[in-house]
């Protein structure tokens, strides 16, 4: 999340013109510029604007949050938020999450039973697009339909990884994977995607791919031996950065699903009963291309979490990650529905 760079505004009473909720959605989510992580502050409505307040030296400093140009707000340690602020954020379609310090672990003020991996407070508006949901459910109840959609996601994921890992910006940051081995891994992954006959087989192929990408990234940055440890249990820098960065991807995934009106539970690869599974599916579209390499680059460079977070956000913006997630999900929904749902049976 970026740290705001605005100067404190003058504390004075002002008249603010009425802004209708529809006006706050004029900037498409895929084109919004801001993701915020806040800690040790209060989020409230002041003079019609959503602001956060910090207290220093007996002074309260007010900082504006441009909600109409914001996709995600992540609240860390020592934060509080008013009902009025949540109402305005919901009107503007901003995804809100609560987390520990530094952005991880992620949690929200809802059900915490059974170790939920991911919970976001989404803007509770039922007036979302209907065509994508109707297309999605037209194939979702068929095994063949879910498999086809999952293959579409995995193919797009590989294309994104290949483009990102071989880009000039990666080379300039010292990320230089073994080209021959990298191409071999991608070729094998594409073959396994094409040959997978069940969602379970595709999920196993995805796990093998991810393991190989971890190994390639570790070697590309001379990081040394690496073993992925999830659930915040990893003690080394790369594991910590992967956990941190993945939550950024999950926030964008939740935003993409909400924008298209797709319930988080309609997963195509992460299991029919996994809570929030579709968020994980959509986030996977960009995790390996953006978060994974930057986690190893930052870890090898000895960067702090704030530096890593800034690096990821710049990369997500530069690669138009949210725009890609929305467009790919939209494309998968309509094409798969045509083949297995509303347009035919495959």
Structure write-up:
The chain is of the alpha/beta class and 346 residues long. It is built from ten helices and eight strands. The strands form two sheets. The protein has a four-stranded mixed sheet with strand order 1-5-7-8, covered by helices on one side. Strands 4-3-2-6 form a four-stranded mixed sheet. β2 and β3 form a beta hairpin. α5 runs antiparallel to α6. The longest helix has 25 residues. It starts with 33 loop residues before the first strand and ends in a 6-residue tail after the last helix. The N terminus is likely disordered.
Total number of beta strands: 8
The CA-CA distance between the termini, in Å, is: 42 Å
What's the order of the H and E elements?
Answer: EEEEEEHEEHHHHHHHHH
Major sheet, described briefly? 4 strands, mixed
Q: Give the number of helices.
A: 10
What is the arithmetic mean of pLDDT? 83
Helix/strand-derived category reads alpha/beta
Strand order of the largest sheet: 1-5-7-8
Strand content: 5-15%
| Poorly predicted tracts of residues | 1-19, 108-118
Share of helical residues: 40-55%
| Rg, nearest Å | 21 Å
List the helices and strands and how they pair.
Elements: E1 34-38, E2 41-46, E3 49-56, E4 59-64, E5 70-75, E6 79-81, H1 83-91, E7 95-99, E8 106-107, H2 131-140, H3 143-165, H4 168-172, H5 179-195, H6 199-220, H7 237-260, H8 277-301, H9 305-318, H10 321-340
Parallel strand pairs: 1-5, 2-6, 5-7
Antiparallel strand pairs: 2-3, 3-4, 7-8
Helix pairs in contact: 2-10, 3-5, 3-8, 3-10, 5-6, 6-8, 7-8, 7-9, 7-10, 8-9, 8-10
């Amino acid at each position: 999340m970026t740290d705001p760079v605005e100067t404190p505004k003058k504390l004075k009473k002002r008249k603010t013109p009425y802004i209708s909720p529809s006006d706050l959605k004029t900037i498409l989510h895929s084109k919004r510029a801001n993701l915020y992580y806040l800690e040790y502050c209060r989020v409230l409505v002041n003079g019609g604007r959503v602001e956060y307040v910090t207290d220093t030296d007996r002074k309260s400093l007010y900082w504006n949050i441009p909600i109409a140009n914001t996709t995600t707000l992540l609240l860390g340690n020592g934060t509080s938020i008013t009902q009025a602020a949540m109402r305005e954020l919901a009107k503007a379609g901003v995804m809100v999450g609560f987390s520990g310090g530094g952005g991880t672990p992620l949690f929200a003020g809802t059900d915490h039973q059974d170790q939920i991996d991911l919970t976001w407070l989404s803007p509770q508006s039922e007036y979302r697009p209907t065509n994508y949901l109707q297309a999605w459910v037209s194939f979702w109840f068929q095994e063949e339909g879910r498999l086809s959609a999952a293959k579409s996601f995995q193919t797009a994921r590989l294309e994104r990884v290949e483009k990102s890992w071989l880009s000039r910006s990666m080379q300039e940051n010292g990320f230089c994977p073994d080209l021959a081995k990298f191409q071999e891994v991608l070729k094998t992954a594409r073959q396994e995607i094409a040959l997978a006959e069940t969602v379970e087989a595709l999920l196993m192929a995805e796990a093998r791919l991810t393991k190989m990408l971890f190994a390639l990234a570790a070697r590309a940055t001379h990081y040394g031996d690496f073993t992925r440890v999830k659930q915040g249990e990893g003690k080394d820098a790369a594991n910590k950065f992967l956990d941190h960065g993945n939550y950024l991807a999950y926030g964008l995934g939740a935003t993409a699903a909400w924008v298209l009106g797709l319930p988080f539970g309609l997963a195509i690869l992460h299991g029919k009963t996994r809570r929030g599974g579709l968020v994980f599916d959509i986030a996977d579209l960009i995790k390996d291309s953006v978060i994974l390499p930057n986690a190893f680059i930052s870890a090898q460079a000895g960067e702090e979490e704030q530096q890593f977070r800034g690096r990821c956000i710049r990369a997500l913006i530069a690669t138009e990650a949210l725009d890609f997630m929305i467009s790919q999900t939209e494309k998968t929904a309509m094409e798969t529905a045509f083949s297995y749902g509303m347009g035919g049976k495959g």
